[in-house]
Automatic annotation (TrEMBL):
Gene name of the encoded protein: TRMT11
Record-linked PROSITE patterns: N6_MTASE, SAM_MT_TRM11
Domain spans labelled tRNA (guanine(10)-N(2))-methyltransferase TRMT11 N-terminal: 30-145
Subunit structure as annotated in this protein's UniProt entry: Part of the heterodimeric TRMT11-TRM112 methyltransferase complex; this complex forms an active tRNA methyltransferase, where TRMT112 acts as an activator of the catalytic subunit TRMT11.
Enzyme class: transferase
GO (cellular component) term, any one: cytoplasm
Origin species: Carlito syrichta (Philippine tarsier)
Domain Ribosomal RNA large subunit methyltransferase K/L-like methyltransferase: 155-285
Protein name: tRNA (guanine(10)-N(2))-methyltransferase TRMT11
Superkingdom of this protein's organism: Eukaryota
A Pfam family matched in the record: Tmrp11_N
Keywords annotated in UniProt: Cytoplasm, Methyltransferase, RNA-binding, S-adenosyl-L-methionine, Transferase, tRNA processing, tRNA-binding
Length: 425
């Protein structure tokens, strides 16, 4: 059944065709961020009369377990884009007296909750007299949308210019199937927003970042009217703020292009948001001059400098690192920025050890977006897999990511010019 858009985020699942509802074990309600509530649908109609006819067709044997004499219940009214008076709500509830309710009403702690949901469209300036659709069903569970507010970046001790939104952080943790006692790694950790979401689900978290000041919580603050970061502005303090410090392993200053880990499979999930070169630069360590052949180590007095880190190289390094360090069945979840007019699915980086699970889009502007890429390790990493992307016929398309920054700002420049022209006319 196609649900109206105003209900899409409220009704996760309706048991249509009188199917018995079963909550999937692999996606329990306590992990769901985008849905408000889950209901078992008992009836639907365009008008009250049509709703009542639909309810009378619902099998009585499926109602009885929730309506028997030893049970308690209450009925709630939810309206979308309209407010009803208490008298109107009572009238709608009384109209359901034909249902075989035998239990007692308990408004504080009922065993079962039933809901009438009325949809009045999306336009607050044109609210119809009668609803477009009316639903009646049994409440199953609520989602976890309150996590978005309680973990809001606005309330967090330590933030940066690119701190990940709390809702997106939890979505990424869900895509990574993060669970209790997992080990989760973020190679571009920033202020640790993704570590917080993973730790909330009971995973032990760690990460790296090339920026010394960010890792140690030093330097200028990102908050308005605050010049320098305080002593409690660091990644560990962020986890402590939410009572999650026991899941914090450590964060190291390290270059993602030169991982310092021993070979082996350590991580159950790698969840990260690499820099795109827009608000945070893409950097790696190195020397401006070519290293002489045969020299494997830099002199002790050598201080590495930052070099440009092309997006295509960054994503290939990330996939290779994931293929080597994830356990079999472990997941890599990351954001891939794309220039929309040129995007094709072939531009998503590929690796023989990783299987693409999902590819979701988030619009950034009229001409750019980013794709949430989820991959799962399906094959043990071997040395020859490290350079397999060079043999791919999609290699040249991958390199198109390198000019994302220029294309992003070219679009911004065109938009500003267009706006200035329209104001002058």
């Amino acid at each position: 059944m196609a649900l109206p858009s105003s209900l899409n985020r409220y009704l996760l699942l309706m048991a249509q065709e009188h199917l018995e509802f079963r909550l999937p074990v692999s996606s329990p309600a306590h992990r769901k961020l985008m849905e408000r509530s889950i209901f078992e649908l008992w009836g639907h109609g365009k008008s009250p009369e049509e709703l009542y006819r639909s309810l009378k067709k619902f099998p009585v044997e499926k109602m009885v377990p929730f309506l028997h004499a030893d049970s308690t219940y209450k009925i709630k009214i939810h309206t979308f884009n309209k407010t009803l008076t208490q008298e109107e709500k009572v009238k709608r509830i009384d109209a359901l007296e034909f249902l075989p309710f035998e239990g007692k009403v308990n408004l504080k702690e009922p065993q079962h909750i039933f809901s009438i949901l009325e949809d009045y469209g999306l336009d607050p300036n044109c609210i119809p007299e009668n609803p477009h659709n009316i639903y009646f069903g049994r409440w199953i569970a609520d989602g976890q949308r309150e996590l978005i507010e309680s973990y809001s970046v606005k309330k967090r001790h330590f933030i940066g210019n690119t701190s990940m939104d709390a809702g997106l952080s939890f979505i990424m943790a869900n895509h990574g199937k993060v669970k209790e006692n997992d080990i989760v790694f973020d190679p571009f950790v920033g202020t640790g927003g993704l570590l917080i979401a993973s730790a909330h689900f009971g995973a032990y978290v760690c990460g790296t970042d090339i920026d010394y000041n960010t890792v140690h919580g030093l330097g200028k603050a990102s908050r308005k009217n605050q010049k320098w970061r305080g002593p409690d502005e660091n990644i560990r303090a962020n986890l402590r703020q939410y009572g999650l410090e026991k899941y914090y392993l450590d964060v190291l200053v390290s270059d993602a292009s030169k991982p310092s880990w021993r070979k082996g499979a350590y991580f159950d999930a790698i969840i990260t948001d690499p820099p795109y070169g827009i608000r945070e630069s893409t950097r790696r360590t190195g020397s401006q001059k070519e290293m002489p052949k045969g020299i494997e180590k830099c002199p002790e007095s050598h201080v590495p400098v930052s070099l440009n880190y092309h997006l295509s190289d960054m994503f290939f390094d990330l996939l290779n690192f994931a293929a080597e360090t994830l356990v079999l069945g472990g997941r890599l979840v990351y954001w891939l920025p794309v220039y929309t007019p040129e995007y094709t699915e072939e531009m998503v980086p590929w690796h023989p050890c990783l299987e693409l699970i999902s590819n979701c889009e988030q619009k950034l502007s009229s001409h750019t977006s980013r794709r949430l890429i989820t991959m799962e390790k399906v094959k043990k990493f071997e040395n020859q897999d490290q350079y397999s992307h060079l043999l791919s016929d999609r290699f040249l398309q991958y390199q198109g990511h390198n000019s994302f920054r220029e294309k992003y700002f070219s679009g911004v420049t065109k938009r500003i010019a267009k706006e200035e022209k329209s104001t002058q006319e």
